[in-house]
Input
Amino acid sequence: MRLHGWAAHTVVAAALAGGLLAGAAPARADGGAPEAALGTPAAPPADHASDIASDIAAEAAAEARARVERLAKSALPAEIRTSAWNALRSTRGDAAVAEWLAPGGGYDAAKQRIRDTRSRNRAFCERVVRTHPVSFSPEVRAAAERALKGSDADRAAFVKTGYAAAELRDRSVREADAQHRLEIAAKDRAFVLALATEAPGEHVRTAAQWALRPGSADADVTEFFGYGWANAAMLDMEAYRLNTADAEVRRHHVLSSLVDRAAAVERTVETAADKEKARADALLAWQAVAGHADAARLAWLAQQESARVQAENWRGVTALAEGSGGELWKHIVAPARARAAEWEQEQAQAGEAALFWQGMADRARASAARLEG
Output
């Protein structure tokens, strides 16, 4: 079975998306540069080449700092946010930011701390509080809040046994409350079945599959609507944010290295014994910068499309939840609305990142063209 019409539209729209940002100049049919780039100014005098290269390096450093600041202000785990702020506040300036982005630097150290058991236990408790409404899971919610206020041992106990015990108490109360017991309609079960294969998020698909696993009961479907769906959706968002952060940290580190090398090689052209070889080396160096930036732009366009699909998906879920009027759907309204807004924000940020990388690729190609001329 397929999802409702809005989901089908999402799939079709994703397939038809051309990958261009709104307002961006279209590529020429012959694969050349966009039309807007054809009117490139005349190459500057040779003695200005060093200044131009320095400007590109400064632009790369400024964007690297801006990226670290975005991570510091993001919804990523506290370990990454705190570490990013420490790098930004360092008196060593851009050098501290560059070291934070480098392999084995501050970002990687923060990622390692996330894997610490205590950090994972706290993150689990925080997620439970955000995704288990009091109206549906009062025992679980209260136990998670107590664990957060308690010690590391309290949080470990909640993860190990406390969550399952509180979940059982909530389920027992719901099953004993005949007056408010929810009836699972065939259409609701069919909807979850469709999510199990067609939801854009891996964690949501897994949660839907679990709700319909062999031997499952109506209570499992009820709990999927009550908190399982929201919890899985948050995991999908967290995974997207962490994956994009990982990739962009690496891209900025590589960009800085490539730009510094290109600028250094170009500075030797006028004094080199073999000027033609030096010029050829500088040309290749700037082409490497352009190639790296092009790959980054394409990666961000793919992320932009992924976020767009998710945003459209959650807008559709919100409309369904608000329009159903049923008790089963009421708990997903607020999470669906929140996820839609978050994915729209991720889509916009991906577009901004793609524009930066497009500009960097254009500047690198202009430097290469200057050397060729």
About this structure: The chain is about 75% helix and 0% strand.
